[in-house]
Task: structure prediction
Amino acid sequence: MPKIKLFLWKAAAGALPVGAQLVRRHISSTWDCARCGAPETSTHMLFHCDFAAQVWNLAPLQLGHIPIGTPILEALNLLKKTIVLPPVGIHTATLFPWICWHIWKARNQLIFQNSHFSVIETVTKAVQDALAWQSAQLALPKVRVATPRPNSTTTLTHDFLCYVDAAWQQQSSLAGSGWVFQATSHSEKEITTFSAGCRRFPSPLAAEAWAIKSAMLHALQLERSDLLVLSDSKSIVDALNSNVSLNEIFGLLVEIRSIRNRFRSISFQFIPRLVNSIADAAAKLSLCISGNIGLDPGTLVFV
Ligand SMILES: [Zn+2]
Result:
């Protein structure tokens, strides 16, 4: 469900407003868990607080142990492998996201409404919602959404596609970059590499140019020297294809043109933002992760 996807994404990116985060952002002076008084991190709230542990124990899941200190992304990945035990009747929907969601809701009810949800109530509500979601999905007609593809004539002449994007935050002037390599020889969309970084830049255009430059350098590192770079920044793609200069990013364009000579074959193509959603998400995520864990600008993160 979209709202739960967003919730889990926030949890994975360390962006949930739990006590530890609120203290870090100077919104609150105490990070104590409202139930047990321990420091409230996302993993504590979702897995290790006594209440959460009891909810997971009662849930009809074949669940392994999640040791204290397990990074949240690792914990969520472990949960993805859990099996819903019969006879709950949940087949296509997975239960664990609903359990995480209802532990979070129970926590908020306690803090903001002072109302207590019991362990049984929390598990029951999660199972009910998962079942309701499952039957709603089964009742939906199957719709195939057509995604626009990059120009296929150009695509076929290169060994690799590189979707690249940047996300830029005006307030901090921090930029995140993201790119995805895809081999053109496979009929299915195979994402071969994904990486991202974070740095300060004066404008979104500069951030886009930096993302393209970083992706090209990474392609050379991986010996992918036959590349089609796909970007949703039309002005940069136009500038690179016409050898026109843009004052704002003069230096970066010079660098990109020089790196370009090291490729066996390279082209640049504009694509609409809609088609660039994975690189866009990667860029936003890198910006968010860097902001949250205090990564030094300039650090390249390979995910
Ligand atoms: Zn607690």
Remarks:
- The longest strand covers residues 160-169.
- Residues 143-148, 292-299 have pLDDT under 50 and may be disordered.
